[in-house]
Write a structure and sequence with these properties.
By secondary structure, the chain is of the alpha/beta class. The chain has two domains: about 15-275, Rossmann fold; about 275-475, Orthogonal Bundle (N-(1-d-carboxylethyl)-l-norvaline Dehydrogenase, domain 2), CATH 1.10.1040. It has helices at about 30, 35-45, 60-65, 100-110, 140-145, 155-165, 185-200, 200-210, 225-235, 275-300, 305-310, 315-325, 340-350, 360-365, 365-385, 390-400, 420-430, 430-440, 450, 455-475, and strands at about 20-25, 50-55, 70-80, 80-85, 90-95, 115, 175, 215-220, 245, 250-255, 270-275. Strand 3 (about 70-80) and strand 4 (about 80-85) form a beta hairpin. The chain binds D-mannonic acid.
Length: about 475
């Protein structure tokens, strides 16, 4: 990468907007999505919706964005080329461990009306199978002991709300932008549970006065690499360490329930609706479900990206069959959508040759993703008397992936909060039957009712054996 200081740098075109939003988790997805909708909403309809971007742990976003005054470049990529736009909705960047009081002051600021979140599935500190707060989570234990110096997203929200209540300020609206079913109700439940542990009256107030709209968020956004920064320098003539790359497509469906004012996100194309449940189920099962299936099977078959994986006709046929036979039959069609067209469009998006979305990246955190992406769909199929072999193969591929060895016996860098436990289970058990049965016992991932289904277990064992003997590519012929 060119580190020459004479390189033209990105600068702001205008003064930073007054802060009206605190955003927790300012990674690539936030910059390619929420921050862009907010930037465009402010351009079209004004409003004081500058964002205070808060990192829970790392300084990376701070170091990338602060020297650029919070501005960064969003680059939309497809076969037709690249289109870039400078985004200026971020007004400040804070890092919780470095200045927790600055973050809490923002959260308690009456000018802040909205708290948005992109903290990934594991950031909610919940038990994936039940959606309840994980009381054994180290950050939850910490935040219960030291509620005034929280380190988790739910802990910050509870303390921010507690300070507002003490000062007679109305609560902010909490808008989760993570891929979880009923993400608003989920964050509401963990926040209320954590609040109740310190003060029942606070929990009641949040229940009564707080608003936690659910949302469906969608834009494919791979992690930015050093090569991407270099390519931007070549194309635009300036260096931007905070740049993000994404597909042109975007969709944001938001439940229309807020405490007070909000940005005019609908002017930037967001859909404000009475309930997002059907949209969310469609997206989680059709998109994220097949993404995870392609991630595990594609990775095991030696493919680096989603586009590479679906360029193989056998994989492409496999995904189309998953949609048609195993996923669409379990998804009620949301108003204004057509599921066949939605999935056909998804395949076009997966094939986007300009997006290098790594199978390894999507394979991360499977223990947090499996229930809502694959296991619920499998359960619904079993309930209608159908054994979904393709989805079972995808779960068996996850079980193979988390063993930490690929088809060639090479180590896999498994990133998952449960990685050590998963590796230990795979090491202690030999043979597919024992390994599958031992993994199925993890009740934070597998609902015990589903785990007890004999046809499910048998399909997983058969698929796990086939993956071990013939590899991922050959296994697709049985599914
Ligand atoms: C992906 C998602 O990384 C993953 O697990 O499945 O980030 C996916 O790209 C987005 O949900 C698309 O909206």
């Amino acid at each position: 990468m060119n580190n020459d200081d004479s390189t033209v740098r990105l600068g702001r075109s205008s003064q930073a907007a007054d802060i009206g939003i605190v955003h927790i988790g300012p990674g690539a997805f936030f910059r390619a999505f929420t921050a862009i909708y907010t930037h465009e909403a402010m351009q079209i309809a004004d409003g004081h919706w500058g964002i205070s971007a808060v990192s829970l742990k790392s300084r990376t976003a701070h170091d990338q964005l602060v020297p650029q005054g919070g501005a960064y470049t969003s680059i939309s990529l497809d076969a037709a080329g690249r289109e870039s736009q400078v985004i200026e909705s971020i007004s400040e960047v804070l890092v919780v461990p470095e200045d927790p009081q600055a973050v809490l002051s923002r959260l308690a600021d009456p000018a802040v009306n909205i708290v948005t979140l992109t903290v990934t599935e594991k950031g909610y500190c919940h038990l994936p199978a039940s959606g309840r707060l994980d009381l054994a989570h180290p950050d939850v234990v910490h935040d219960m002991e030291r509620p005034h110096a929280p380190r988790s997203a739910p802990g910050l929200i509870v303390e921010g709300l507690a300070q507002r209540r003490a000062q007679g300020i109305q609560p902010f609206t909490v808008v989760s932008c993570d891929n979880l079913p009923s993400n608003g109700s989920l964050v509401q439940a963990v926040v209320i549970e954590l609040a109740a542990a310190r003060d029942a009256a606070l929990a009641d107030w949040i229940k009564r006065e707080g608003r936690f709209p659910s949302t469906m968020v969608d834009r494919i956004t791979p992690a930015t690499t050093a090569l991407d920064v270099e390519a931007l320098l070549q194309h635009e003539g300036y260096k931007d360490l905070g740049c993000v790359l994404h597909e042109p497509f975007r969709q944001w469906v938001i439940e229309n329930t807020f405490v007070g004012a909000r940005p005019a996100w609908e002017r930037a194309g967001a859909q404000l609706v009475a309930s997002v449940d059907a949209h969310e189920l469609m997206k989680l099962r059709c998109l994220n479900g097949t993404h995870s299936a392609l991630a595990y099977l594609g990775f095991l078959a030696g493919f680096e990206t989603i586009a590479d994986t679906v360029s193989d006709p056998v994989f492409q046929r496999f995904v189309r069959t998953l949609w048609q036979d195993e996923i669409i039959p379990t998804v009620p069609c949301p108003e204004g959508e057509n599921l066949e067209r939605y999935c056909a469009r998804l395949m076009e998006r997966y094939c986007n040759p300009a997006i290098r979305h790594l199978t390894w990246q999507i394979a991360m955190d499977g223990s947090q993703k499996l229930p809502q992406r694959l296991l619920g769909t499998i359960r619904d199929n079993l309930e209608r008397g159908f054994l979904p072999r393709g989805l079972c193969l995808a779960v068996a591929a996850w079980m193979t992936f988390v063993s930490g060895r690929d088809e060639r016996g090479e180590p896999i860098d498994v990133r998952d909060p449960m990685a050590p436990k998963l590796a230990e289970i795979c090491q202690q058990n030999t043979g597919s039957a024992d390994t599958v049965s031992a993994l199925l016992k993890i009740d934070t991932i597998f609902d015990p009712g589903l785990a007890a289904d004999e046809s499910f277990r048998a399909a997983l064992i058969a698929a796990h054996e086939r993956l071990a003997s013939d590899g991922a590519h050959a296994s697709l012929f049985d599914a």
